[in-house]
Amino acid sequence: MQTRKGREMSVIISLLDALSLAFGMFWEILWALVLGFVLSAAVQAVVSKAEMTRLLPDDSARSLGIACGLGAASSSCSYAAVALARSIFRKGADFTAAMVFEFASTNLVIELGIIMAILLGWEFALGEFVGGPIMIVLLVLLFRAFLGPRLLDAARRQADRGLVGSMEEHAEMDMSVTKGPFFKRLTSPEGFTAISHYFVMDWAAIWRDIVGGLLIAGALGAWVPRSFWQAFFLEGSPTLAAIWGPLVGPLVAVLSFVCSIGNVPLAAILWNGGISFGGVMAFIFADLIVLPVLNIYRKYYGGRMSLFLLATFYVAMAAAGLIVELLFRIFGLVPEGRHARVVEASIQLNYTTLLNVVFLALAAVLVWRFLKTGGPEMLKEM
Predict the structure, then answer these.
(1) pLDDT value of residue 131
(2) What are 289-292's contacts with CB under 8 Å, separation 24+?
(3) Alpha-carbon span 381 to 118, nearest angstrom
(4) CB atoms within 10 A of CB 224
(5) What's the distance, Cα to Cα, between the start and end of the chain in Å?
(6) What integer pLDDT is reported at residue 279 of this predicted model?
């Protein structure tokens, strides 16, 4: 019979195993996180948020294409994306276009693709950028079929009440430099300052999701046996698993409370555990229907619209996952092995460590600029 001291040691070892896996994944993706946020900050520094409303007047193909581009160029924080979508909707943008912007800002951003390629493999990054547009098309079709004027008017009245959700100030922040040639704007002192502010603000907006996702992934990797995931995801029946994965993937995401980039480490655990390729895609797509975000929809647009968004988003996400699964199977792009990078803490002299050092130095320069140009005062307002 195990003694009390033995049980305590067992608990400590289990906790250390979970933390080791979490840190190991963090070290693998650190340089890519910095790179992604730098690129995102650079784009935000030259794209004015004030122009978004003017560019999204309706749900035409042109407006929806612009919404995708603006979303892909914005912050990857789900909360900031939701807040900004409400903001441009209140200022006159089309509701469907605002939701497409929201989808693109969390599913078509550069940093997400980089992290997926590192932890899961290039096939998953490709699946994200193939499935994202498919999901957006499905969402638009659902909105055109089922979104009535009465529900939309009620949502607009609720939105105009201006109830506070999350990351409101970050969503409203606009330091973009709009005068002069593109490269000159980026390299100007104003551009450098804007990049540094967007970089730090994006980190401040999303760090909880990244840490939460890594800790949950570490705990699941260390404590949940693979046999459980294999049974849950029906790995023994490939045909059923291919259908079941996209259907259940978003539901797992809803209960995880983790969104934005933070759900990629969780996706790595689920893939190694037996979820289908399309199930991984649907799980990652579903960061916009996690429980905290659904509560924000209720505040922003009312209870009926929040339920409408949950239903249409879920259908679009699950269907997109199924379509990606089918397409990638037809073209032989579904990975045969399950070798997502879920590694224990280990710092070695390799390309990962060298890249981390280089990009941490770049991050330090941007943080220094942020601190020297009034950044802390702006951060307090968030």
Answers:
(1) 96
(2) 289/250, 289/253, 289/254, 289/313, 289/314, 289/317, 290/78, 290/253, 290/254, 290/256, 290/257, 290/258, 290/259, 291/254, 291/255, 291/257, 292/79, 292/166, 292/257, 292/259
(3) 34
(4) 13
(5) 53
(6) 96
Q: What is the pLDDT of residues 333-362, one digit of tens each?
A: 999 888 776 655 566 777 778 988 999 999
Under the banding of pLDDT at 50, 70 and 90, the label for residue 292 is confident
User: What per-residue confidence (pLDDT) applies to 265?
Assistant: 84
The one-letter amino acid code at 245 reads G
* Amino acid symbol at 336: E
Q: Return the closest-CA partner of residue 36 out of 106, 85, 131, 124.
A: 106
Q: Any idea where the domains of the chain sit in the sequence?
A: 17-381
Which residue in 266, 262, 148, 280 sits closest to 212, CA to CA? 262
pLDDT tens for each residue of 200-239: 887 887 777 778 877 887 887 778 888 888 899 998 898 9
- String of DSSP letters for 49-118: GGGHHHH-SS-SHHHHHHHHHHHHTS---HHHHHHHHHHHHHTT--HHHHHHHHHHHHHS-HHHHHHHHH
Could you tell me the two tokens for 147? 């979104």
Nearest residue to 52 via CA among 144, 141, 178: 178
Residues 107 and 261 sit within 8 Å (Cβ to Cβ): no
Query: What phi and psi values does residue 161 have, to the nearest 5 degrees?
Result: -70, -25
List % helix, strand, coil for the chain (3-state, nearest 5).
80, 0, 20
Predicted confidence (pLDDT) at residue 117 exceeds the cutoff of 60 = yes
Structure token digits, residue 356: 């981390």
| pTM score | 0.80
